[in-house]
Amino acid sequence: MTKEELSDLLGGWQGYHLGTVERIQISDTKRPHTEVWIELLRNQGEEMMCSNCGNLTCKIHDWDDRWIRDLPIFDMETKLRVQRCRVKCPNCGPKLEAIPWLNRYSRVTERLAASIARLCGLLPVEHVASWFGLGWDQVKKIDKAALDLRLNPADLTGIEELAMDEFALHKGHRYATVIADPSTKRVLWIGEGRSREDIRPFFEMLGPDGCARIKAVAMDMNGGFEAEVRAQCPNAEVVFDFFHVVMTYGREVIDSVRKEEAGKCGANSPARKLIKGSRWLLLKNRENINKEKDIVKLDELLAANEQLMTVYVLKDDLKEIWRQRSAEAAFDCWIGWMHRAFDSNIKQLIDFTGRMSRHLMGILAHAKHPLHTGLLEGMNNTIKVIKRMAYGFRDAEYFFLKIRAAFPGNHG
Ligand SMILES: [Zn+2]
Prior knowledge:
The chain is an alpha+beta fold. It folds into 3 domains: 3-107, no CATH class; 161-241 and 372-406, 2-Layer Sandwich (Nucleotidyltransferase, domain 5); 242-368. The protein has 16 helices and 12 strands. It has helices spanning 3-9, 110-120, 125-132, 136-151, 196-213, 226-232, 242-264, 270-276, 279-283, 292-304, 306-323, 327-343, 347-358, 360-368, 375-389, 396-406, and strands at 16-26, 33-42, 48-50, 56-57, 60-73, 76-89, 93-98, 161-168, 175-181, 186-192, 216-219, 237-240. Strands 1, 2, 3, 4, 5, 6 and 7 form a 7-stranded mixed beta sheet that branches. Strand 1 (16-26) and strand 2 (33-42) form a beta hairpin. The two termini are 47 Å apart. Zinc ion (ZN) is lined by residues 50, 52-53, 55, 89, 91-92, 95. Residues 50, 52-53, 55, 89, 91-92, 95 line the site of zinc ion.
């Protein structure tokens, strides 16, 4: 086989031809391996492109040898010794030659970078680095650049609805906000923090026309997003989704009543033990309880405790408000529910009802715009996996890009 044929077989390096090709045994005690060293010589007399202005010229100013990594050949780490030229550009003076298969500042070929980025979608950065015999930082940088190119700027054309949610970045100390398109579940934006100011960059990116196009935004009624959305999106209705309301209800009503009821039982009594151990059963959706004995346990508990029975039944009935498809029907549903809550005389229920009535417009708006955030329902696990793969938040920008890549939307 001639060198030209060999070069073609390997995919070639445009503008270059093969010099020496060597197989080198590296007897590093930690990592003995074999490498292929390929010398690449610049073809003479061809036009070269200035990396600064794109001008074509045949004039070489000077050149030096650079070591560049390429895809492994037959599982051997492959290093290219490349004659990297500076052209004598008539416009710019001495400038680096632009090479289609090699990025200006990169020490790996474009095809190796593409392979690294593809693997980083499946494996932790550490594994990809060890597979190719590259540094962790180098692999992360390559993956980050590829994600940035693929995902930015985010395509926000035609977006009319938004869902906003927050998640804890570091054990509840730092938070991040996720903004998604609820119809496709595509994550549009992620930023650190959860205040009005923190989410403003998203609306700046959306621009005045984009903001005016937004018709509805789903969010948690406890969050700090409402005021900012009202200020930025003049035509948007704020929608409080069921997922968050029922989470709040679980925390502030069911769990609080459960603790109180446990406190009323004698120390070490079986009733106290039963109530104390039922947190999960009471908060979980009944249809998601799989074990027959857990259902029996729940039913026994509810039959024995009137207060718990009341708050449990009202939790289920809360759903009815979100099932309605007209604001009038939802309002009727709410009035009925509110009366029952007041009649119960349970303080936590009455407090919760007060909170809901202050957010009533956003609750009724759901009938017209049946959105739900519930993003975190499906996201939390994925975020945990990405945390492990990308080594947490040392680089928040990279971490957020990984999350966006994991939620590309279910169409389009
Ligand atoms: Zn130039």
